[in-house]
Amino acid sequence: MRVKAQGRSLLLTFAVLLTCTPPSLAADRISYSQAPRSAISDRLQRYTGDDKQREATLKQMFEEAGCDGQYLLEQTVKGSKQPNIECSLPGIGPRVIIVGAHFDHVSAGSGVVDNWSGASLLPSLYEALKDKPRTHTYIFVGFTDEERGEVGSKFYARHMDKDAIGATDAMVNLDTLGLAQTEVWASHSDKRLVRALAYVAGLMSLPVKGVDVEQVGTTDSEQFAALKVPSITIHSLTQATWDAHILHTSRDKFSAIQFDDYYQSYQLLAAYLAYLDRPIQTPANGR
Fold it and tell me: For a designed S-S bond to 225, which of 6, 68, 80, 231 qualifies (C-beta 3.0 to 4.6 A apart)?
């Protein structure tokens, strides 16, 4: 998450616990695989090195997950030393879901929370979906240089043509996970995507709440929302962890992760992405 320069005195705006009236869809229609805790922990602990090393590690983890060859690409980003890393899971239909997280970090701390916590989940989420044919094509993107002004996501969004924009049903952004239970930046997320997240959380009896962070900083989903692509940012930043000065400091290290919360976020995200592989109903009053 790119924190505002003056952010240390800012407060978070808390939303209510998210609830949803379930649509008429049986829980057993959500089909996906779930990785064990040990696999999620192992990938989270591979955070070491500078951003060049993180890029290489993320690419290696995608390959280990089975995403390689023509489906694993490096997008050279103008103005960045590292590329965006893009892994595609082809679907049988023309629609697309983008799942993104930035892999870069600031020099202070180890950047485990912000944002190896999000980037290291991308290969595991690919694995969760790959064993069953999907209607959507899922594109998992590790964005470079979010901390320098969302350089990677801006470049990616700027190079989407009109057809690609029109074909994208959702952009799911993962940024700063594992500090607490799963949260969503509700005020900057598509309402239909938020309702879908609340519904899946209810099916799984997992917690999720809205915590709005526009006073804290920005994140990669903003580039896609500007293109009118339905977007959602999932995070875990709370007032307590903000006041503890974890982000962009030496306190951003592996010990800051609450692993039970982190693993629950992974479980929810895996089910949520599988659930999104269906038409998202547009309510009568729009977004």
Answer: 231
CB 175 within 8 A of CB 114: yes
Is the link from the previous residue into 115 a cis peptide, with omega within 30 of 0?
yes
Quote the longest CA-to-CA distance of the chain: 49
Beta strands in 144-244 (DSSP E): 168-174, 183-184, 209-212, 217-218, 231-235
Tell me the three state secondary structure of residue 207.
coil
Distance CA 162, CA 159 (A): 10
Cβ burial, residue 283 (10 Å; 0-12/13-18/19+): exposed
Residue 73 carries which DSSP code?
E
The Cα–Cα gap between 198 and 230 comes to 16
**Is the Cβ–Cβ distance between 195 and 208 less than 8 Å?**
no
237 DSSP assignment: -
Check residues 167 and 30 and name the one with the higher pLDDT. Answer: 167
Task: In whole angstroms, give the CA distance from residue 214 to residue 7.
Answer: 10
Statement: residue 14 has pLDDT above 70: no
pLDDT of residue 12: 61
Cβ neighbours for 147, distance < 8 A, ≥ 6 positions apart: 2, 102, 104, 105, 106
- How many CA atoms lie within 13 Å of 123's alpha carbon, on the beta-carbon side? 25
Rg (CA), the chain: 17
73 burial via Cβ count (<10 Å: 0-12, 13-18, 19+): middle
Model-wide pTM > 0.90: yes
Question: In 94-190, which ranges are continuous DSSP H helix?
Answer: 117-119, 122-130, 151-158, 162-167
Q: Using CA atoms, how far apart are residues 193 and 171, in angstroms rounded to an integer? A: 9
